[in-house]
Amino acid sequence: MEAVVEITDFSIENVLAQNDELRCKLESRDHQIMLLEEKINYLLYHRFSSKSERFDKRQQLLFGNEDAACEVEPATETKVPEHTRKTGGRRVPPQHLPRVRVEHDLLEEEKQCSCGSCLNRIGEEVSFQYDVIPARFQVIENIKFKYSCSNSKCKQPPITAQQSPPAPLPRTQASPGVLAWVGSSKFADGLPLNRIASIAGKRFGVPFTSTTLADWMIKGAEQIISPLVATMENALDGHDYLHIDETTLQVLSEEGRTAKQKSYIWCRVTGGNDTPIVLMHYSPSRAGAVASKLLEGFSGFLQTDGYAGYGASASRPNVIQLGCWAHVRRKFDVARKASSPGAANIARQGMELIRELYYLDNQEKEKPPDQRKRYRQEVVKSCLDKIRSWINRNQVQAFSYGGLLSNAFTYINNQWSKLTVFVEDGRLQLDNNNAERHIRPIATGRKVWLFAQSEAGARATATWYSLVETARANGLEPYWYLRKVFEEMPMYLRDRKPVNDLLPWNVDSKELEQLARRD
């Protein structure tokens, strides 16, 4: 039986009230549809479009909108002065590469001129080609001579000579060169261990397995690299400017956790003009307690993104937290790409202002900190005031759009006090890219090697990346630096010598170049 709706009140007031209610429902539904379309646009951009945040400020929306606030500037003519265009040319190969002279001459019968006279050599033309000799495996046979007493009545046991220098990993077949090659292939070049084993087997006929290589990487981290990383941790105590960030890592076999649960690698990097130190730390948690433990005893400037887990560390009286303008720009960039035309236009204005801020600040980038601080106070601070005024004028409209643009305005409002700290010190940066730059190899490598098999493997991964990224930050080539470490570290440990001489900032890059030429 169908329900019958009985309308008893046909008054004008009641009809108008019902119309207003329907209009509100339609407006709410239209707004919800807009937000859903925005999410679809964002997913499409994230899946198929370029991830670059670059944009041309002269580019305007193809279709106008009554909410658009930017006016199109009239076209102007620019006269470009004439200039001489440089011709292209190949670079001469570096002088340190060995040369192999290959001579090309005429045949004997071609050395006769058409007039009957002989041709005389008057010079030569030289052209260059690069050549490469693939990695060459060899087997080092360590012969340790044994001696016994010549007196037949002597009962002293035989004496065996000790290997010198000591093996980096006793009771394994790994030499310093192999450990450096495997370590740099994975942690500098991003290759997974099964692919490295496949390259060694199919290309060179060496029967490595990924299990063996993983065991070597874990033992190498625990026995050789860990003392260096511990010394780097102690050296971090004297720095008063740090960047910190974290990224995910999947660990398959970890006690009390499933393979689907996310684990994390935390990254701390020294900032300013201090000695570059990059330290990675593995933890199964992203809780703020992990950050508090890593930053225990730290005082000074701490640069982070907007993650609330850093709040406890940043709230200490001797810590000043900085925000990240790169994260602000990224949120406006997402809104520019995925929002409705009106919201996208406001987001575009925000990105133009942020680009102006970066441009002004970079003008005195190479100047001493004191001079850069004065410049920031006199010039850059006015740009911050301009951005603040723009936020105040547009935030009501931005919040009415909702969605991604509203998120961008909420983020910049919440972070504003941290985003303006950089003008107080010439060493400080506008963003946290210093940490993201060193954590990116983990993110890109993770797409290839996917996961860590065990907790020991995850901790070894953090240890290896700490040393490799610190070496890179100090201008060292990872393979030759790792080779030096695995060659000399066993002697330092045997003799109980301080390992400071092997820290990346104490190793001369020219020394590594000589090592490369020697081999």
Describe this structure in words.
Residues 74-95 are annotated as: Disordered. Residues 466-505 form the Transposase IS66 C-terminal domain. The chain is an alpha/beta fold. Among the domains are: 174-235 and 455-518, no CATH class; 325-426. 48% of the residues lie in helices and 8% in strands. Strands 3, 4, 5, 6, 7 and 8 form a six-stranded mixed β-sheet that branches. Strands 1-2 form a two-stranded antiparallel sheet. Helix 3 packs across helix 4, helix 7 (325-338) packs antiparallel against helix 8 and helix 8 runs antiparallel to helix 9 (369-401). The longest helix has 37 residues, at 12-48. The radius of gyration is 32 Å and the shape is globular. Residues 60-76 have low confidence and may be disordered.
How would the blueprint of this fold be written?
Layout: H1 12-48, E1 146-147, E2 159-160, H2 176-187, H3 193-204, H4 210-235, E3 241-253, E4 262-270, E5 278-283, H5 288-294, E6 300-303, H6 311-314, E7 319-322, H7 325-338, H8 341-362, H9 369-401, H10 403-419, H11 433-449, E8 452-454, H12 455-473, H13 478-495, H14 509-518
Parallel strand pairs: 3-6, 3-8, 6-7
Antiparallel strand pairs: 1-2, 3-4, 4-5
Helix pairs in contact: 1-7, 2-13, 3-4, 4-12, 7-8, 7-10, 8-9, 9-10
